[in-house]
Amino acid sequence: MILYGLSTCDVTKKALKALERAGKDVTFRDVRAAPLTEAEIDAILTEFDDKAVNKQSTTYRSFSPFLRESQPEAQIAAQPTVMKRPIIQDGATWYIGWDAETEAKTTA
After folding, report:
1. How far apart, in whole angstroms, are the C-alpha atoms of residue 102 and residue 98?
2. Is the separation of the CB atoms in 87 and 98 below 8 Å?
3. Pick the CATH number of 2-107 from 3.10.150.10, 3.40.50.2000, 3.40.30.10, 3.40.50.2300
4. For the segment 48-104, what is each residue's pLDDT rounded down to a tens digit?
5. 24, 63, 65, 90: which has the fewest C-beta neighbours closer than 10 Å?
6. How far apart are CA 9 and CA 17, in angstroms?
7. Are 68 and 74 in contact (CB under 8 A)?
């Protein structure tokens, strides 16, 4: 299981702690410290399309008009913190965000 997020994100921390408490073998990937590869961005966007971009974030709102009009892969590559968090890859299954439903599915 891979959890993509930021080490400073409270939701990401909460998800990581819950998964570890459930005994899951989790690899945490801080996308700011170790930016996503093109292949990883493609995989995430194949699964979630532009839902992977947090358009409510201050990062997104600070984008130039050009970057705001760009494709999601360019936005995430330019500023990984714009990615909605956390994103969890559990084998072939993907989850975005952390809510009661995702917690129930990933910690069972």
Report:
1. 6
2. no
3. 3.40.30.10
4. 999 999 999 999 999 999 999 999 999 999 999 999 999 999 999 999 999 999 999
5. 65
6. 12
7. no
